[in-house]
Amino acid sequence: MDTRFNDKSVVITGGTRGIGKGIAKVFLGHGANVTIVGRNSDDGEAAVAALSGYAATGSVSFAQGDMSLESDCVEIMEFASQHYGGIDILCANAGIFPEKALEAMTGADIDLMLAVNLKGTILSVKAALSYLKNSQNPRVIITSSITGPMTGFPGWSHYGASKAGQLGFMRSAAIELAKYKITVNAVLPGNILTEGLTDLGSEYLDGMRSSIPLGDLGTVEDIGYACAFLASPEARYITGHSLVVDGGQTLPESQAALDAIR
Ligand SMILES: NC(=O)c1ccc[n+]([C@@H]2O[C@H](COP(=O)([O-])OP(=O)(O)OC[C@H]3O[C@@H](n4cnc5c(N)ncnc54)[C@H](OP(=O)(O)O)[C@@H]3O)[C@@H](O)[C@H]2O)c1
């Protein structure tokens, strides 16, 4: 049994489904105590029931809240700290991605996207700070995306802006928090097979697979393993960086490069 994160307290925002749930599974499997966060309590309780079986030595709890609200962020971190004796690792993962063409986009669409994805990331780090400062191996890991920092997709310009913004935040935060030995890094997932993506059907998924050199979509656990590495003692000297986990999706310089390997 791998208990690398034994006794560590990990908070995973957006841990009730999708990538966050995969991250939770990996940390639980390595012995951590995990607090998952989401707005929907039914989903949260269902995720706790589903994830409990993966706990090596620790346990999993659900904290209900909206990461775009400062008071909720504060309450969630208080809950996690009281429950598990502090916070060692924060995975700022909660995010939304409603599609909207630029010509139809309203100020409200932009406000919502930035409130959850960007402001929510900053607020959650800020709320966790006083606890992270007391940890021996404090870590912040942000779930960004290839969309925005590296690539673009019509209909997701406001999403791309929020995901690139997370990296701008990361770099300055990494410098500011270095004095507490808190590292701040990001994972940049490509196309990851979540419950939402599965609903799009096999034809759509096959089309996505064909654009990825490794020939398959990523799993939520693939992102969990990348987070576990960045949270490990071995990664103590890495800060302010991003780790792309995309099966090589961002590598081909043209369609011909993909055709050449098919
Ligand atoms: N899936 C991909 O291929 C992919 C690729 C690149 C990047 N990402 C990034 O990965 C992260 C997770 O995406 P996903 O695909 O796993 O999404 P998902 O399946 O829709 O899950 C999103 C999670 O975030 C929670 N959440 C959403 N808004 C929240 C808020 N305001 N406050 C608290 N929790 C909130 C959701 O719970 P509630 O709805 O109950 O709040 C849920 O637990 C996002 O940051 C996304 O940008 C995903």
Topology summary:
Elements: E1 9-13, H1 18-29, E2 33-38, H2 41-52, E3 60-64, H3 70-84, E4 89-92, H4 107-132, E5 139-143, H5 157-177, E6 183-189, H6 195-198, H7 202-209, H8 220-231, E7 242-245, H9 255-259
Parallel strand pairs: 1-2, 1-4, 2-3, 4-5, 5-6, 6-7
Helix pairs in contact: 1-8, 3-4, 4-5
The chain binds NADP nicotinamide-adenine-dinucleotide phosphate (NAP).
Residues 13-14, 16-20, 37-40, 43, 66-68, 93-97, 116, 120, 143, 145, 189, 191-192, 194, 196 line the site of NADP nicotinamide-adenine-dinucleotide phosphate.
Mean pLDDT: 97
> What is the number of E strands?
7
Give unreliable regions as ranges.
none
Can you tell me the CATH topology?
Rossmann fold
Shape: globular
| Relative strand content | 5-15%
Radius of gyration: 18 Å
Largest beta sheet, briefly? 7 strands, parallel
Brief overview:
This protein has helices at 18-29, 41-52, 70-84, 107-132, 157-177, 195-198, 202-209, 220-231, 255-259; strands at residues 9-13, 33-38, 60-64, 89-92, 139-143, 183-189, 242-245. By secondary structure, the chain is α/β, with parallel strands linked by helices. The protein has a seven-stranded parallel β-sheet with strand order 3-2-1-4-5-6-7, sandwiched between helices.
